[in-house]
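Support request from a user on the community tier.

User writes: "When I paste my structure tokens into the form, the page sometimes reloads and wipes my input. The last time it worked, I copied everything first. Here is what I submitted, just in case something in the input itself triggers the reload:"
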């Protein structure tokens, strides 16, 4: 009986403890909470959670897509976006760019970046939107070459600075016909709109016209490859018409990259879309939006390289009428029209929309920043991918291995000069003979510093047989030598692999043109290297002869039995003969 009562008491105590645990235990162990976690949602409950996402919120959460992966890269991206905008503005205004770039260290991980230009300036009403609203710009729908494309970069830099320091950008801008305006803005990421915290008119500003962008951000400054210093130097190479003043942490005074030429690059013309570059959905959109009354007029007015004869051929192939109303064309008819365009032979788009650097300026840029022995430049004729015209340019700067360089003067005399070589950095783009060559990649004059291995340019360099041109190369690797290979792509729409604009997509048409340009420049380099080896071999042989001429004279004296005076005359005659042959 006592055992039964003891068992009953124990059971009552267990029930009491379970009840107490349900009431006072952790929330996640309570039965009602467990049931709530395992309960499935209905369509109505899921619908309540749906809401629109602002583009600013998206990029704020996924800032690595825009190049703000880490503090060091964020500093580079901020400078890059501001400099690109400044160069674009100056060139569009026909102004030789004078850029001032400053990096000031405020704390261990906080920096203040200042970029100032002498461009045409920005009208007051546009300043907040340009610097405080993502996907706001004038170049997205424009079919002509420019550095910027999407209207994201500079506002994303301001957003990153605000996220890491709590402060938005400060802008001063002045046009030729107005006073300078001073703005301080915050970015409302939930609405993708700028919030103006300061708006004042300045009575005086040191610039006659131009724009100054200033932002504080969390960053890390370090010299070397893929740094802000490296970007500035490469920008000076691809933009020899620009003067750049650069002040970085630790510098006592700004370093100035003087301009090598005084001509502003010719402004590219805007062109209409090419029929080959328009997909079915875009074609249907254009048909609905056009003001043309007839289908024939639509094709001629909305596309480039389409005249009356080509338009008639396209419409005939599609089985449609020239008098069809574009806005009334159904999807099936639009599909027939799209397929007819692909079957019709249409001339390539005009290339006036491109503004390449040019062979002479590429050579000037390399000579300005690379102390090399030889420069080879090649420019390919314009080509097309997906209806978009593009042009590839290549430049090679090469120096003889080792510290000695052979020089041949106008009279044919060969001499040696000493030349020091160090590992390449921002001061010396040329490295040692045992290092891989330095590859400089550019798109619309903008340096591409990251994702080199995934870039189409790199794939073309790896696929080129550099041994044929005097450079050693292992399978699947960059060639080795004290050289710099510059590749530039000019296009109305550069196919970047990401929004960060760090690498070129490997389109077959682009890979082919890059490889052909590399081979053309490589042949010039190979001829120079072979000529140099021939000269070096001749120099070595002449040294041997000059070294052993006295011994030859002694041998001839013993054989012929001549006097010492005759021996000296014989040696002098042989030396004069060598000098005569050298001059010839």
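"...and here is what came back when it finally went through:"
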């Amino acid at each position: 009986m006592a055992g039964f009562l003891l068992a009953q008491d124990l059971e009552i105590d267990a029930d009491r403890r379970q009840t107490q645990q349900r009431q006072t235990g952790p929330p996640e162990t309570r039965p009602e909470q467990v049931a709530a976690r395992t309960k499935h949602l209905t369509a109505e409950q899921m619908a309540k959670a749906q809401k629109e996402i602002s583009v600013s919120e998206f990029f704020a959460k996924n800032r690595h897509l825009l190049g703000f992966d880490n503090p060091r890269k964020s500093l580079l991206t901020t400078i890059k976006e501001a400099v690109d905008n400044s160069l674009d503005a100056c060139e569009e205004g026909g102004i030789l760019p004078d850029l001032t770039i400053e990096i000031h260290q405020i704390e261990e991980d906080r920096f203040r970046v200042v970029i100032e230009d002498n461009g045409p300036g920005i009208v007051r009403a546009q300043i907040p939107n340009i610097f405080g609203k993502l996907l706001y710009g004038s170049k997205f729908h424009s079919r002509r070459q420019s550095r910027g494309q999407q209207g994201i970069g500079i506002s994303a830099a301001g957003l990153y600075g605000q996220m890491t320091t709590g402060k938005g950008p400060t802008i001063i801008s002045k046009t030729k016909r107005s006073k300078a305006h001073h703005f301080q803005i915050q970015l409302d990421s939930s609405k993708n709109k700028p919030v103006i915290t300061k708006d004042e008119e300045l009575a005086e500003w040191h610039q006659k016209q131009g724009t100054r962008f200033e932002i504080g951000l969390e960053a890390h400054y370090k010299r070397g490859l893929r740094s802000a210093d490296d970007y500035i130097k490469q920008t000076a190479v691809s933009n020899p018409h620009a003067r750049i003043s650069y002040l970085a942490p630790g510098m006592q005074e700004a370093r100035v990259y003087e301009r090598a030429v005084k001509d502003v690059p010719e402004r590219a013309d805007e062109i209409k879309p090419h029929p080959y570059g328009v997909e079915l959905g875009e074609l249907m959109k254009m048909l609905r939006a056009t003001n043309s009354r007839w289908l024939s007029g639509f094709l001629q007015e909305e596309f480039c390289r389409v005249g009356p004869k080509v338009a008639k051929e396209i419409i005939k192939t599609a089985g449609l009428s020239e008098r069809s109303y574009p806005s009334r064309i159904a999807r099936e008819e639009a599909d027939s029209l799209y397929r007819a365009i692909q079957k019709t032979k249409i001339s390539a788009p005009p290339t006036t929309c491109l503004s390449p650097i040019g062979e002479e300026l590429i050579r000037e840029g390399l000579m300005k920043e690379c102390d090399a022995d030889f420069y080879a430049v090649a420019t390919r004729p314009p080509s097309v991918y997906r209806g978009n015209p593009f042009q590839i340019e290549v430049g090679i700067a090469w120096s003889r291995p080792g510290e000695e360089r052979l020089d041949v003067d106008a009279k044919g005399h060969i001499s040696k000069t000493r030349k020091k070589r160090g590992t390449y950095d921002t001061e010396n783009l040329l490295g040692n003979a045992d290092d891989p060559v330095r590859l400089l990649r550019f798109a619309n004059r903008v340096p591409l510093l990251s994702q080199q291995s995934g870039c189409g340019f790199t794939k073309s360099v790896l696929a080129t047989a550099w041994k044929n041109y005097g450079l050693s190369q292992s399978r699947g690797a960059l060639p080795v030598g004290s050289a710099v290979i510059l590749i530039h792509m000019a296009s109305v729409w550069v196919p970047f692999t990401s929004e960060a604009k760090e690498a070129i997509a490997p389109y077959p048409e682009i890979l082919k043109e890059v490889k052909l340009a590399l081979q053309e420049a490589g042949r010039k380099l190979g001829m120079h290297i072979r000529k140099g080896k021939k000269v070096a071999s001749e120099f070595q042989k002449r040294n041997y002869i000059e070294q052993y001429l006295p011994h030859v004279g002694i041998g001839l004296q013993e054989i012929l039995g001549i006097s010492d005076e005759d021996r000296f005359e014989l040696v002098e005659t042989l030396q004069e003969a060598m000098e005569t042959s050298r001059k010839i």
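Agent notes: The reload is a front-end session timeout and is unrelated to the input. The domain at 359-527 is CATH 3.30.230.10 (Ribosomal Protein S5; domain 2). The chain has a mean pLDDT of 83. Escalated to web team.
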